[in-house]
Amino acid sequence: MLSLTAVQISTFIATFWWPFCRIMGAFMVMPFLGSSYVPVMVRILLAISISVLIAPILPPFPEVDAISLQALFLGIEQLLVGFMLALFLTIMIHVMSLVGAMMSMQMGLAMAIMNDPANGGSNPILGQWFLLYGTLLFLALDGHLVALGILVDSFRLWPIGMGVFDLPLMGLIGRISWIFAASFMLALPAVLAMLMVNVTFGVLSRAAPSLNVFALGFPMSMLMGLLCVFFSFSGLPSRYSDLCLDALSAMYQFIGGVP
After folding, report:
1. Residue 25, Cβ neighbours under 10 Å: how many?
2. Pairwise CA distance, residues 248 & 240, whole Å
3. I want to staple 26 with a disulfide (CB 3.0 to 4.6 A). Which of 11, 37, 49, 82 is the partner?
């Protein structure tokens, strides 16, 4: 008759539970998988499948009682590690949303806002369009596969049991400023072009006061803005691929990896 002790059962459960917590924490906010359009059951089953597949190659886990308070804290710790790893990708994706918001303000489309049930908020129409475009580019570059590979490597580079506060948290905080710098870099040509258009209509209103600048300027600004958006798509994929590589490299370095 097969007999198992409580320690053996706890060890067996921990083999799948700790990896599942870290992977599920990443799937909560990871682009595409973290969207509310993806059912929670699909995310849970995918996290369980990955945990089962990588369990034989994982380093040894700390011996912790599965029903102890220490096990609860360890599970929360793994959720936070996975959450912070995926946060690099979420920041990268929302660069495109901020680019669209900057262009919308210059075009006069800032008032055209669409509710976004996937992210629980409201975004400008152009920002939502750029967000979808950035997500498709990320998937086309196989960025989601590279992110899953980094997530699996995190169990080797940052084994289960190492504290969250030992991670380089300032590097993650520094990505907040990176999102503004990256989005401004992508939107700068269109912003400068729209600025020249607005300056031209300002000079025109001073030269010919009888001209109705509001009736002429608003449609012309929108037309020139749409042309700027059209031309910006020519060099956007190559620039955005560099941003994806930078975000994935920062994600890898966050857990102690060497790019």
Report:
1. 24
2. 12
3. 82
